[in-house]
Amino acid sequence: MPIVTPALALVIFAAGAAAGGLGALLGIGGGVFLVPLLNIGLGFPISVAAAISLATVIATSSTVTAGKAGQHLMNFRFGMVLEVATAAGSVLGGLTVQMLAQSTLQKLFGVVTGAIAVATVARSRRRNVILDPNADPGRLGGRFHDEESGGTVTYQIKRIPLALGASFVAGNVSSLLGIGGGVIKVPVLNGWCGMPLRAAAATSAFMIGVTATAGVIVYYVNGQLLPTAAAAAILGVQLGSFFGLKASPHMAIQSLKLLLAVVLGAVAVVMFARGMR
Amino acid sequence: MSDAGLELLIGRVLRIGVTTSSICLAAGLLLSLVVPGAGLMLLNVGILLLIATPAARVVLSIVEYVIARDWPFTLLTTIVLMELVAGAVAAVLFHKKL
């Protein structure tokens, strides 16, 4: 494992900034970029890369949640229900990772990143909104101000078991691979469970803090969360996602998504190929 | 407290947690790069603060649900907190076995 010199810390900081910036532009969190940069680029074992990446996920989640508080986009109640499943998946993932070979994890990372690349371009965009602001959101649904509809909209939650199942898998993959897991939850919540995309994304961003915490505790106790490298990565990701979020409204998102899907596809191939060696 | 009030309170707690943690991490990182090993304490404080922030949010939610006498959600939120604790305990037991 590389020793974290001042020069390497600067490189990790830059890698974090790049990953955080790209992630914020895409709306998927930077873990899918940061883990390969740390693992293949800088030679950290994949479990160490995942631990560092999970720590950056917590920081991003806290920052984004604090920034969105008051907009009613985050559904705390439904999020809390789903956290029961993500946290369980995450703890199990963190324990499982200790028994898996680096090559197995790299192959898994390749497969999941490939799926994310496809999902990035082919993401479902169901509206799922009821225009009547007085409609009953049910016990778990919600209400928020939607610019697109020009008023307050309501949504209802459907297929809770499916949402719980997807959340468990998302939590599991999250702590196995060091990614947030929103890329698994958001399409399911939007496509099948009745949530509008913005509400699903905001609720997921709020949830991943607890999901990543459940996973990172296991890594931390096992001494896999290198303090210096983690600090450099966290600060880098914070900086990168700050600028990414600032820039995202001004970018041609659709073409950018296509480009980044290609980058993600390449990441998937590289990680899978490394796992096959 | 209303749902909106809880949202703002949670937002504030998360903001304070992540800011304090980042300050500790930045100071610890600079210190340990100048004098190797010197900033380790600060780095660990920063990381523990980072991990404790979402956990604090869960605890805060439990308190709010108890005050609102919302027992189903008090139970659910307590389960989430127990899972975090179970993760830490399992990691310690697991670590000793290795």
Task: Give the topology, please.
The complex is a heterodimer of chains A (277) and B (98).
Chain A: H1 6-26, H2 31-41, H3 46-68, H4 76-97, H5 102-121, E1 142-146, E2 151-155, H6 160-177, H7 182-191, H8 197-221, H9 227-247, H10 253-276
Antiparallel strand pairs in A: 1-2
Chain B: H1 3-34, H2 40-67, H3 71-97
Q: What is shown here, in short?
A:
The complex is a heterodimer of chains A (277) and B (98). With 277 residues, chain A is mostly helical. Chain A is 70% helix and 4% strand.
Features:
heterodimer, A: 277 residues, mainly alpha, 10 helices, B: 98 residues, 0% strand, flat
Poorly predicted runs of chain B are none
* Most extensive chain-chain interface: A-B, 50 and 50 residues
Morphology of chain B: flat
Give the distance, in angstroms, between the N- and C-terminal Cα atoms of chain B.
47 Å
Give the CA-CA distance, first to last residue of chain A. 19 Å
Percent in helix of chain A = over 70%
Any idea what the radius of gyration of chain A is? 18 Å
Mean model confidence by pLDDT of chain B: 88
Query: So how many helices of chain A?
Result: 10
By DSSP (H or I, 4+ residues per run), the number of helices of chain B equals 3
Whole-number average pLDDT of chain A? 86
How many whole angstroms does the radius of gyration of chain B measure? 17 Å
Note the main sheet of chain B: none
Q: What would you call the structural class of chain B? A: mainly alpha
Q: Which sheet architecture does the biggest sheet of chain A show?
A: 2 strands, antiparallel
Q: Tally the beta strands of chain A.
A: 2
Assembly classification = heterodimer
Secondary-structure element order of chain B, N to C: HHH
Give the SSE string of chain A: HHHHHEEHHHHH
